[in-house]
């Protein structure tokens, strides 16, 4: 194992934490590694809303190019940021065991405003999914764009006159910066593959594929693939208000999926339970159910907005 595996990663604290997890897993198997931080477009432009950038792959494109140009050997991504269609010659090498999947609200002083029907709260997030779900529950609230890594977003929340901001639990807890003034949003269904980390490599790199498959977590790989199939079938990306979560219990796959209009006023959902050995088409079938309910019209509306 004389070859050194160059691990590409974004430069944020959270991205580096993820890359270190992969490095430790490879090192435990006897492989030599080197971290290669690379700045992504999503880290450079922190002002333009994601949906205006044409976000498809914005957090992964720079690493994909470095991979194809042989500057790195593997790239580490938050799986929810990865387009459902990978670039040619790039393949998943491993999906790590999933972490927390929920979203949370970090609030300024208290959460009394959540129960005040006449109070117009100011809530920050740049996630189209989170905006739509929040407006569905609190249609009178005002939503604001909030970009940057988790540290930057927490700093911006502290500086602005907002009541709160929405984050992924995994992002804050993994680097131990979850504030005490935060609550889990149990009613908010997560983004497809939220809380999961994926390692990708070049398709023809058998060495790296063999190294990474040793720590692939089969259950996480299966359930996130179902969620991403749901997303793909609805023609969605991380700028569409699509939510999905699958988990396995007693050899049964439990799935929940949602599609909202951008303003949260229209909403379609589906829940399914299927035997583990018959779950290969679960994501597509659930998406087709959403489309049949009337979701096709929402998908068409979102496309026209873009």
TrEMBL record:
Keyword vocabulary terms for this entry: Porphyrin biosynthesis, Transferase
An example molecular function term from Gene Ontology annotations: hydroxymethylbilane synthase activity
UniProt-listed Enzyme Commission number(s): 2.5.1.61
GO CC annotations on file: cytoplasm
Function per UniProt: Tetrapolymerization of the monopyrrole PBG into the hydroxymethylbilane pre-uroporphyrinogen in several discrete steps.
Family statement: Belongs to the HMBS family.
Protein name: Hydroxymethylbilane synthase
Species of origin: Chitinophaga niastensis
